[in-house]
Design a protein that fits this description.
- This protein is of the alpha+beta class and 293 residues long.
- Helices cover 55% and strands 11% of the residues.
- The chain has 13 helices and seven strands.
- A four-stranded antiparallel beta sheet has the order 5-6-4-7, covered by helices on one side.
- Helix 11 packs across helix 13.
C-alpha cells in the first residue's frame, strides 16, 4: 500500500466478515496501534505487542508475520528504543488514525436532508491505476457511483472527498459540487440504486448478533472490570466496528427504514466504548510501564 493511500481510508485487505476480522492478527494489530499506541507516542515494544496479541489468543509467529507485513507496506516503522526492539506508527498511518477517530469513535446522529456532495472526475487512460484507486477510495469513505465518473454522498462527507483527491494528488482531474436531487425519480428510489442499504443493514445486524451476548455477560459484573478482560473484549468489538462507519455513508434519516439496523448497532458499540475503553487503555499502559521497570 502506498503512503498516500494510508492517509485517506481504512486499511486494505480487511475481511467483511465480523467474526473473521475480530480474530485476524493483522486486523487486531491495526486496532491495537490505532486505539492504544498514540497516547504512548505511537510506539510499542515487540514484547508488549506479543503479550497483548497473546492475550487475544494469537500466537507469536502470526504476530511477527503481521508486523513484518505492515513494515513492508509502510504502516509501521521498525524502531529500537533503549536497545528494545519495537515498532512505531508511520506518519501517514498516524494521520489515518487521527482523521478516522471522528468517523469511528464519535457518535454519528442520522442527519436531516442537507443536500449532497458530488465528485466528478475524468482521468486519462494512461493513469488508469490512479483512476481505479480513486474509485476504490471514494467507495471506502462512503461515496456511491451515480454513473461513470460521477459519485455522490451526503454533504457531510465533503471533507472526505477533498482528502481523497488531495492525498491521491488528482485535484487537477476532480471537480466537487454541492447539489440537490430534484428529478425525475423519487430520492428514496435513487438512494436504493446508489447504495445497497440491505447489505449495509446486514453488516449492522451481524454486529448486533455477534456482540449482544457479550453485552449481556457484563450485566452481572460489579465494580471495576478486569483490565485484561476489558482489553480483549473491547479490542475485538472495536475491530469489528471500525469498518462499519465507512460502509455506512450516514444517509439522512428520512430515507432510511424505521427499523434501521444502524441504530441498535451504534448503541451497542458505544455501550462497550463507554464502559470498557478506559480500562482497556489502562491495561496497555500498565503493561508498557511494567516492561520499563
Amino acid at each position: 500500500m502506498a503512503v498516500d493511500d494510508l492517509e485517506i481510508s481504512a486499511f486494505d485487505g480487511e475481511p467483511s466478515d465480523i467474526s473473521v476480522r475480530a480474530s485476524r492478527p493483522q486486523s487486531l494489530l491495526i486496532t491495537v496501534y490505532g486505539a492504544y499506541s498514540r497516547s504512548l507516542g505511537g510506539w510499542l515494544a515487540v514484547s508488549t505487542i506479543l503479550r497483548l496479541l497473546g492475550e487475544m489468543g494469537i500466537e507469536d509467529p502470526a504476530v511477527r508475520s503481521a508486523l513484518s507485513r505492515f513494515k513492508r507496506r509502510g504502516i509501521l516503522v521498525a524502531d529500537k528504543r533503549d536497545r528494545t526492539a519495537g515498532y512505531a506508527l508511520s506518519s501517514a498511518s498516524r494521520r489515518t488514525f487521527d482523521v478516522g477517530d471522528a468517523r469511528v469513535l464519535e457518535r454519528r446522529e442520522l442527519p436531516r436532508e442537507e443536500g449532497w456532495v458530488l465528485a466528478a472526475f475524468s482521468i486519462p487512460e494512461s493513469a488508469r491505476d490512479v483512476r481505479y484507486r480513486l474509485r476504490s477510495r471514494l467507495a471506502k469513505v462512503g461515496f456511491a457511483q451515480v454513473t461513470g465518473g460521477l459519485w455522490i454522498a451526503p454533504r457531510a462527507l465533503e471533507a472526505d472527498v477533498r482528502n481523497v483527491a488531495e492525498a491521491l494528488n488528482v485535484t487537477d482531474y476532480v471537480d466537487v459540487f454541492r447539489a440537490e436531487h430534484i428529478a425525475f425519480r423519487p430520492t428514496p428510489e435513487a438512494i436504493r440504486a446508489w447504495w445497497d442499504l440491505d447489505a449495509i443493514s446486514a453488516h449492522y445486524t451481524d454486529f448486533v448478533r455477534a456482540y449482544s451476548p457479550l453485552r449481556s455477560a457484563y450485566s452481572g459484573v460489579q465494580g471495576t472490570v478486569d483490565g485484561t478482560r476489558a482489553f480483549v473484549d473491547y479490542t475485538r468489538v472495536l475491530t469489528s466496528w471500525r469498518m462499519l462507519p465507512y460502509i455506512d455513508p450516514g444517509l439522512p434519516m428520512s430515507y432510511l427504514p424505521r427499523d434501521w439496523a444502524g441504530r441498535p448497532a451504534t448503541e451497542l458499540f458505544f455501550w462497550f466504548h463507554d464502559h470498557l475503553a478506559q480500562a482497556a487503555q489502562k491495561h496497555v499502559v500498565e503493561l508498557c510501564e511494567a516492561r520499563r521497570d
